[in-house]
Design a protein that fits this description.
The complex is a heterodimer of chains A (164) and B (205). Chain A contains seven helices and six strands, in the order H-E-H-E-H-E-H-H-E-H-E-H-E. The radius of gyration of chain A is 14 Å and the shape is globular. In chain A, strand 5, helix 7 and strand 6 form a beta-alpha-beta unit. Chain A has helices at 4-16, 31-39, 52-63, 74-79, 81-89, 111-123, 137-151, and strands at residues 21-24, 44-47, 68-73, 95-100, 128-131, 154-159. Chain A has a single domain (4-163), classed as Thiamin diphosphate (ThDP)-binding fold, Pyr/PP domains (Rossmann fold, 3-Layer(aba) Sandwich). Chain B is of the alpha/beta class. Chain B has a single domain (3-204), classed as Thiamin diphosphate (ThDP)-binding fold, Pyr/PP domains (Rossmann fold, 3-Layer(aba) Sandwich). Chain B contains eight helices and eight strands; from the N terminus they run H-E-H-E-H-E-H-H-E-E-E-H-E-H-E-H. In chain B, strand 5 and strand 6 form a beta hairpin. In chain B, helix 1 packs across helix 2 (26-33), helix 1 (3-14) packs parallel to helix 7 and helix 3 packs parallel to helix 5 (77-86). The mean pLDDT of chain B is 93. Classes of the chains: A alpha/beta (164), B alpha/beta (205). Chains A and B meet through strand 2, helix 3, helix 5 and helix 7 of A and helix 3, helix 5 and helix 8 of B.
């Protein structure tokens, strides 16, 4: 069961990295993070209704000087492929993708999603890292943001349910 | 009413307002009406409402405009749903409804049949929605959008451009378009907005 305490550690790591704008869709495991973003006065949180919106929302916010994270399930990641290609990659928009990694090792839900997630990110030339241990969150999230700006593209952190 | 004459009629109201413009030929009409680095040509069909929302939230003290089309807006009605939920007061979203995919072979859209796009905006909870079909009503709606809190959603019913269509489509590199747009924002905001990099020390703390 996802805990508010673990979500708080991830939110603190994002804030330390300077993230001040988040677009999201929920998942049962991501619910404490969504609630945490809603309560946080330092973060503008945009609750979306379909993931592809998030790429445009983060582009607009990035133009306005915000550091953006975009949180979703990996099912939602597949919904964003055109926008990731024709907006985020083609226009070169840095953003952190926080992706719940359903169907990966030791998860009984959505096995096909688990299998295609990393190959799809590879095809989009979006670097990706898996967060398996909560203690790694500060370095991994900040490091992914550094790379996103350096490489001028999204960088994904795949979050396993065990971390939440 | 045609899109080109409608844009020309309202362009003085925009001054230096940042403006996202949908994929397709509306970009050419708008750049003729208001040539500016504050025009940004979108690349993902339907992303206008979303990009406008993001910038409107980042710069809440400034009007942000989106020039959209019927084919684009119905590809991402989710964007309207989120605007209706978040309700940024400074967003002006204008849709030119010519009832065809004019840049994609002039095939009819759903609004040529039973869809009313303005009703989508109302159902999403956008507080200021107007549907207009005359030039005078369009000018009044855009003037009202600049003078009052929104979000504003204006659906302008227009004729297809037909033989008046701009076709001299010189492609601007997207990344150059981004830099021009951000520099425009920095100029009107009088502060830096773009970060070239974030501090590497973040990752080794």
């Amino acid at each position: 069961m996802a805990s508010a305490e673990n979500a708080d550690k991830i939110i603190r790591a994002l804030k330390r990295a300077g993230v001040n704008f988040v677009a999201s869709l929920p998942d049962a495991s991501l619910a404490p993070l969504v609630q945490g973003f809603d309560k946080d006065n330092d973060i503008i949180h945009v609750p979306l209704s379909r993931e592809e919106e998030g790429v445009g929302v983060c582009m607009g916010a990035n133009f306005g000087g915000k550091r953006c994270a975009f949180m979703m399930q990996n099912a939602g990641l597949l919904n964003t492929c055109n926008a990731l290609t024709t907006t985020a990659r083609q226009i070169e928009i840095p953003m952190l993708l926080l992706v719940l990694y359903a169907g990966t090792l030791n998860d009984m839900a959505f096995p096909m999603l688990g299998i295609v997630t990393e190959p799809v990110l590879d095809a989009l030339e979006i670097p990706h890292y898996t967060l398996n241990n909560l203690d790694d969150a500060p370095a991994l999230l900040a490091g992914a943001l550094v790379q996103a700006y350096n490489a001028q593209r999204p960088v994904a952190v795949l979050i396993t349910k065990a971390v939440l | 009413m045609k899109r080109k004459e409608a844009l020309a009629a309202v362009s003085p109201l925009f001054k230096d307002t940042p403006c996202f413009v949908t994929v397709g030929l509306a970009w050419l009409d708008w750049n003729q009406a208001r040539p500016s680095d504050g025009n940004f040509h979108l690349k993902t069909l339907g992303s206008g409402s979303s990009a406008g929302l993001g910038l409107a939230l980042a710069l809440p003290h400034r009007k942000v405009a989106v020039l959209d089309g019927d084919g684009a807006v119905i590809m991402n009605v989710n964007g309207l749903i989120t605007v209706g939920r978040v309700r940024p007061k400074n967003l002006i979203h204008i849709v030119f409804d010519n009832k065809i995919y004019e840049s994609s072979g002039c095939i009819p859209t759903a609004s040529a049949y039973n869809l009313n796009i303005a009703n989508f905006g109302r159902a999403a909870g956008i507080p200021s929605v107007r549907e207009v079909s005359s030039l005078d009503d369009f000018k009044a709606a855009v003037k009202n959008a600049f003078e009052t809190d929104g979000p504003h959603f204006i659906v302008a019913i227009v004729e297809p451009s037909g033989e008046d269509a701009n076709t001299s489509y010189s492609r601007l590199n997207e990344v150059e378009g981004k830099f021009k747009f951000i520099r425009h924002l920095e100029k009107i905001e009088n502060r830096p907005l773009r970060e070239d990099s974030v501090d590497i020390k973040l990752s080794i703390q």
